[in-house]
Amino acid sequence: MALVTLTSDLGTRDFYLAALKGAIITHCGNISMVDVTHSVKQFNIKEAAFTVRNAYKYFPKGSIHLVHVNSSEANSKLLVAVADEHYFITFDNGFLSLVFERTPHQTYQVNDELLENNSLLHEDAIAKVIELLEKEYLPKDFGHLTTETINLRLLQPICSSGTVRGTIVYIDHFGNGITNISRKMFDDFIGEKDFTVIANVGQSRIISKKYSDIEEGEMVCLFNAADYLEVAMNKGKAELLMGLKLDMPVMVIAD
Prior knowledge:
The protein is an alpha+beta fold. The protein folds into two domains: 143 residues, Rossmann fold; 97 residues, Elongation Factor Tu (Ef-tu), domain 3, CATH 2.40.30. 21% of the residues lie in helices and 31% in strands. The strands form two sheets. Strands 8, 9, 10, 11, 12, 13, 14 and 15 form an eight-stranded antiparallel sheet that branches. A seven-stranded mixed sheet has the order 2-1-3-5-4-6-7, with helices on both faces. Helix 1 packs parallel to helix 4. It is elongated, with a radius of gyration of 20 Å.
């Protein structure tokens, strides 16, 4: 039995998530479902892409990942992509191109007959697609290959010898700012030189291994589990106390 993960901006206060899960159970029976998060900021596909990109690899091959974010821009198109031996069900809103840097070659548009009589939540069509995948049908059996999808690009860091200029791409539950500066970029362009990390009003000259390496209330920089530079505050919310925001520049400059 395949495992289904759920990522959405539906929240848990309203009936929407329950309706979606109910439709899946009605079509698929006692299927295994794992909630990744339903707290993605409304319509924020960048946040959804960051979450799924860093989470899906921990699940077994063959897992089905439903990403129900920004459904208002679905353009009446439901997509199923196959990548890294995983299935991704989502809308045509640019999400896939943000997760994989380009829309996967094996991206299928679900045939119109599965979308008939659907509500704005698209719960019935989604449940039918999961049911078909669960029964080991292939996406080509109920969809057609498509290249006519929305493609978006994330800002990329600008690197030169002694300088890396990145941006904050995600702010987590603790108010920590996660950048698009990878450990490899840092090693390649800063290396063993002394350096300063500059993020809005905060500065640090140290890369720590854990938050508690720095005094409480002070800025701390470290590479997180995904090997990206994180700007945080030990026992404090860097988002509030340092004024961190999405797309804000973060500089690493060698002395």
